[in-house]
Specification:
Layout: H1 2-6, H2 26-41, E1 45-50, H3 56-66, E2 72-77, H4 84-94, H5 104-120, E3 124-129, H6 137-146, E4 158-163, H7 166-171, H8 177-180, E5 183-189, H9 194-207, E6 215-216, H10 218-228, H11 232-248, E7 253-254, H12 256-267, H13 296-342
Parallel strand pairs: 1-4, 1-5, 2-3, 3-4, 6-7
Helix pairs in contact: 4-5, 4-6, 10-12, 11-12
């Protein structure tokens, strides 16, 4: 909706990982160096950890983009809350193999034959496992056993394990010793600092044709970094909402006040109450999640916050409805004019 208003070629802050928007922060560049090194070895496991939304998946997709697509067979395993055999079946399915009927031994044979054929064609097989912190020890062991598939030169498959920070602790447990011995590279992806946050926002805007409209004050970037903690996905969500706000309010420049107004609305939405710096109501909830009954001032504050949010949202809703209702009418007029000229 706001893309046309600001003359962008696409949405700059979409949530789906897209290597076009890859931003090479210091941490991301270092992680890429570790990934390149791990890939050069052609075997074992590569571990990347980071907070939710830190950019782990985008990092790996950017890496894949740099590889020769004709010599790459890559698969991604997203659902990791599986038992050991289901994990194997999911791996087979990710590579496009039959996975419903075969026994475990047949499943392993099919995978070995597939990976061997790919290797003979000069292709590299990569398996990306997301949310690795949810893997059971037995599931991890099954993935480790896949690395035993080898030809005369090297392993037939290399595995990327992407996980949240707690996965680093899981790897240190005694039953992960054999997997640790096969980790050839690992890196923890931290948040962006304040300067990188500004660079990240401007990079994504420039990718879609930004020419300085809208503009941002230094204080606006500071407020965005403080609220999001430098986590890319949180930045995407907040900046997307800021641009929508700017379109609806016809803003060509954002300062701290505009950013704080959007942040205030986000803080009252359930989906965003885990952001850094969220204060107020959430800190006064009882263990059961309800407000303390002995704190009427808190209830009054909550009602006032909701009223302010509603007062800000109502004009936005009206403008959206007006925009949507006007567009078909304009299209009909254009269509009618075209028909008249044809006759």
């Amino acid at each position: 909706m706001y893309e046309d208003y600001y003359r962008f070629s696409a949405k700059p802050f979409q949530l789906n990982p897209d290597p076009r928007f890859f931003y090479g922060s210091k941490g991301h560049r270092r992680a890429m160096a570790y990934l390149d090194y791990g890939l050069s070895l052609g075997e074992g496991f590569i571990v990347i950890t980071g907070e939710v939304g830190a950019g782990k998946t985008t990092l790996v997709r950017n890496l894949f983009r740099q590889l020769d697509a004709h010599n790459l067979v890559a698969a991604q395993l997203v659902s990791t809350q599986l038992d050991a055999e289901d994990t194997l079946r999911s791996v087979a399915a990710s590579f496009g193999l039959e996975h419903e009927g075969p026994t475990k031994s047949a499943l392993l044979k099919n995978l070995e034959d597939f990976l061997g054929a790919a290797s003979r064609q000069g292709k590299r097989a990569l398996l990306v496992v997301d949310e690795a912190q949810n893997l059971t020890p037995r599931a991890v062991e099954e993935l480790r056993m896949l690395s035993n598939f080898q030809n005369s030169e090297r392993s037939l498959i290399q595995t990327f394990l992407l996980g949240q920070p707690e996965f680093r602790g899981i790897l240190q447990s005694p039953d992960m010793q054999q997997l640790r011995q096969r980790v050839v590279a690992s890196y923890h992806l931290g948040p962006l600092d304040a300067d990188e946050t500004r660079g990240y926002i401007e990079h994504r805007l420039r990718t879609v044709g930004w020419q300085g409209n809208p503009g941002f004050d230094d204080a606006a970037f500071t407020a965005l970094h403080r609220f999001t903690g430098g986590i890319p996905r949180r930045l995407n969500t907040t900046c997307d909402r800021l641009l929508l706000f700017g379109f609806l309010e016809e803003k060509g420049h954002f300062g701290e006040a505009e950013v704080n107004e959007v942040i205030s609305d986000l803080r009252n939405e359930v989906a965003h109450q885990d952001f850094h710096g969220v204060t107020g109501v959430n800190n006064h909830l009882s263990a059961g999640g309800a407000p303390h009954s002995e704190d009427p001032a808190l209830l009054t504050l909550r009602v006032e916050q909701m009223e302010r949010s509603i007062n800000r949202i109502l004009p936005i809703v009206r403008k959206i409805l007006y925009t949507v209702s006007e567009r078909p009418a304009a299209d009909d007029d254009a269509s009618s004019g075209h028909s008249d000229s044809a006759h």
